[in-house]
Input
Amino acid sequence: MQMTDSQRIEAPRQKVWEALNDAEVLKASIPGCEELIKHSETEMEAKVRLKVGPVKATFGGKVTLNDLDPPNGYTIDGEGSGGVAGFARGAAKVRLEEDGPEATILHYEVDAKIGGKLAQLGARLIDSTSKRLAGEFFAAFAEQVAPSGGNEEADAEPAAAAAGEETPPAAGEQKKAGWLGGLFGGGKKQDSGAEKSEEPAE
Output
């Protein structure tokens, strides 16, 4: 599976670079991410609960950052396993390009391979799911780096509370997904326990 795309983020390149290396920001942006541990400046470990088509599982994965060129970009090498659900391994090249002093264009190229039940779902489903998740990841990531609304949103919350209205959840809480999650197969976190899931990986 190969995927190439870009996303414009309303934040300076240095700030975007720092966010790409921030475990908390990444955890908040990856779909179904239950845990993301940064062991060093170049090594992270993630636990992601996902569903792609009929396949559900908890994937454990390791990520290594290579070719670091701050604040221009890096290469991510990742490998994840979900037991009988399958596995995913691959790499993503990330490049940051300045678009004026207050905006950045993030370019990425993903080359990944999958196996097990995930591979049996077919290339069309895998490709469409990965592209959708990448878009959702960037929406959440951009909201983490450059929250929208500003003071107007902050002023609206107390006014709504005074009127007894419920304030809607932030965009970052509504959408979680991404290219990093794509390395593990990608998918939305499932809140319902109605369906049976695959046994989590050891």
Strands lie at 2-9, 33-38, 43-52, 55-69, 73-81, 87-98, 104-115.
